[in-house]
Amino acid sequence: MNTAGILDFSYSLGAILVMLMIFLSMIRALAGPTAPDRVAAINIIGTKTLIIITLIARIYGQEYFLDIAMVYALMSFITTIGIAKYLEKGALD
Amino acid sequence: MLLDLVSIISLIGGLFFLFVGTFGLLRLPDVYNRLHATTKCDTLGAGLVLLSLALQSSLAVGVRLGLLIIFILITNPTAAHVIARAAYKTGIHPIISGRKSDD
């Protein structure tokens, strides 16, 4: 197996491992005792999903998936800020 | 060839730090401890995996991956700070050396 094949295999295996880590983080998001635990777990899941999107862009050779990854990062950040502000103030003003 | 080696080492390091962050999220006792573990480990892990991809790609894709790394480096600590602030203001006290309260 040449080096390009080893790299492709490594990226595919890495995407599968990050997917398993998302399932492990989902345990904390479902069973977290307080609400900020769940918000933190969902923030972590968003970061790992971003990594999976970029790995899939490399595996399938589609460059425009990176733009989707940028938009996903922005939406994940705004969602986390919004939920945290709602927990803090009880309203979204 | 050297670039491929650096890329694979960076990928393995990034996956290791992502796993450490997930383990800390599952095993640590407090919301502040969990944020402490996951934020730094996930930021470094995501940066290393994206660096491993950027070393293998062309210039246009590499610039976009660099922008993603800078964006993650800005937003991830900000999100953790806002979550910890919300947790403290809603009355969740950190565990300090066996005591349940900090007052």
Brief rundown of the structure:
The complex is a heterodimer of chains A (93) and B (103). Chain A is 86% helix and 0% strand.
Structural commentary:
- The complex is a heterodimer of chains A (93) and B (103).
- By secondary structure, chain A is mainly alpha-helical.
- Chain A is built from three helices and no strands.
- In chain A, helix 1 (3-31) packs antiparallel against helix 2 (35-60) and helix 2 (35-60) runs antiparallel to helix 3 (65-89).
- Chain B has one domain.
- Helix content of chain B is 79%, strand content 0%.
- Chain B contains three helices and no strands.
- Chain B has helices at 2-27, 31-54, 59-89.
- The relative contact order of chain B is 0.14.
- Classes of the chains: A mainly alpha (93), B mainly alpha (103).
- Chain A binds chain B through residues 3, 6-7, 10-11, 14, 17-18, 21, 24-25, 27-28, 34-37, 39-41, 43-44, 47-48, 50-51, 54-55, 58, 63, 66-67, 69-70, 73-74, 77, 80-81, 84-85, 87-88, and chain B through 1, 4, 7-8, 11, 15, 18-19, 21-22, 25-26, 31, 34-35, 38, 42-43, 45-46, 49-50, 53, 56-57, 60-61, 64-65, 67-68, 71-72, 75-76, 78-80, 82-87, 89-90, 92.
Topology:
The complex is a heterodimer of chains A (93) and B (103).
Chain A: H1 3-31, H2 35-60, H3 65-89
Helix pairs in contact in A: 1-2, 2-3
Chain B: H1 2-27, H2 31-54, H3 59-89
Helix pairs in contact in B: 1-2, 2-3
